[in-house]
Amino acid sequence: QVQLVESGGTLVQPGGSLRLSCAVTGFTISTSAMRWVRQAPGKQREPVATILRAGDTYYADSVKGRFTISRDNDKNTMYLQMNNLKPEDTGVYYCNELVRYFWGQGTQVTVSS
């Protein structure tokens, strides 16, 4: 059974940091293309960070230099380290497998003072 379970979202002040996790069962993330996608209130979902099978990473311009996507193959878990958070980073963050289009349930990140 395929499951993607995100965690780590919470309320944080501007300038703060968070690390999101996506624990995966049912397939191996090291042989998959994975990404983090966020959905801000009233907006469409947008990809923010992608990691390919070979480990290449890609970022949306809005998060470059602040967010880092990574994975732990032994734990079959993907991460998103988010630094210098801004109010516009607020949203629900989902992990997503690109080819077979598996999705997690999302975790809420709120950046506010």
Determine Rg (CA atoms, Å). 13 Å
List the helices and strands in order: EEEEEEEEEEE
Largest sheet: 7 strands, mixed
Number of helices: 0
Helix content: under 10%
Tell me the distance between the termini: 40 Å
- Average pLDDT confidence is 97
What would you call the structural class? mainly beta
Note the beta-strand portion: over 45%
Apparent shape: globular
Unreliable stretches (pLDDT < 50, length at least 5) are: none
How many individual β-strands? 11
Task: Please describe what this structure looks like.
It is a single chain. The chain has 113 residues and is mainly β. Helix content is 0%, strand content 50%. It is built from no helices and 11 strands. It has strands spanning 3-7, 11-12, 18-25, 34-39, 45-51, 57-59, 67-72, 77-82, 91-97, 102-103, 107-111. Strands 2, 4, 5, 6, 9, 10 and 11 form a 7-stranded mixed sheet that branches. A 4-stranded antiparallel sheet has the order 1-3-8-7, with no helix packed on it. The radius of gyration is 13 Å and the shape is globular. It starts with a strand and ends with a strand.
Fold blueprint:
Blueprint lengths: L2 E5 L3 E2 L5 E8 L8 E6 L5 E7 L5 E3 L7 E6 L4 E6 L8 E7 L4 E2 L3 E5 L2
Parallel strand pairs: 2-11
Antiparallel strand pairs: 1-3, 3-8, 4-5, 4-9, 5-6, 7-8, 9-10, 9-11
In short:
The protein is mostly beta strands.
Structure characteristics:
mainly beta; seven-stranded mixed β-sheet; single chain; 0% helix; 113 residues; four-stranded antiparallel β-sheet
